[in-house]
Design the sequence.
């Protein structure tokens, strides 16, 4: 019975690592797309700014007799700079998206390593797994803090609890190994 549970845990860790790898790749591709978009916007800023002006809290795009309004609603960090040109505003939002997506990809890759280690080891209670979980926890908390400090505090405390449980498990594992 015990071996079945261990086999199921290892299978679950393997499946989770594959899912995390897929999501990590998606976020990495998103980061590359945002980065290339931001660079393109900055490269063609003069041409782009000829068609766009700021009008009453919106960007007004006038091209070929057609007028389109774009809400001035980017990321709060970028919007706080109050950029006066559309290309600067849009380019900075795209670069911000690249950074956030890249950091997400990194955090997911760290979590994936923890699941791979769990799958391949005899015990998940190791310093290696704990280090990977702590790294992912810190990155996740920082990312959550960008949108809500209150939620970030809850996430940080929850992840700290998980790390404490793993630390306790490591000590129990050491004691068990010494007993044998």
Sequence:
């Amino acid at each position: 019975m015990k071996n079945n549970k261990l086999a199921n845990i290892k299978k679950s860790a393997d499946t989770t690592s594959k899912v995390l790898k897929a999501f990590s790749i998606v976020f990495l591709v998103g980061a590359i797309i945002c980065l290339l978009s931001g660079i393109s916007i900055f490269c063609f800023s003069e041409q782009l700014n000829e068609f766009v002006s700021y009008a009453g809290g919106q960007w007004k795009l006038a091209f070929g007799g057609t007028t389109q309004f774009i809400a001035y609603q980017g990321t709060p960090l970028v919007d706080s700079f109050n950029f006066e040109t559309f290309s600067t505003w849009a380019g900075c939002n795209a670069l911000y998206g690249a950074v956030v997506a890249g950091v997400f990809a990194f955090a997911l890759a760290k979590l994936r390593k923890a699941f791979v280690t769990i799958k391949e080891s005899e015990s998940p209670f190791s310093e290696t797994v704990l280090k990977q979980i702590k790294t992912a926890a810190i990155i996740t908390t920082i990312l959550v803090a960008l949108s809500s400090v209150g939620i970030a505090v809850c996430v940080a405390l929850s992840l700290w609890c998980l790390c404490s449980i793993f630390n306790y498990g490591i000590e129990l594992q050491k004691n068990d190994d010494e007993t044998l």
About this structure: The radius of gyration is 23 Å. The longest strand covers residues 58-63. Residues 60 and 69 are 5 Å apart (CA to CA).
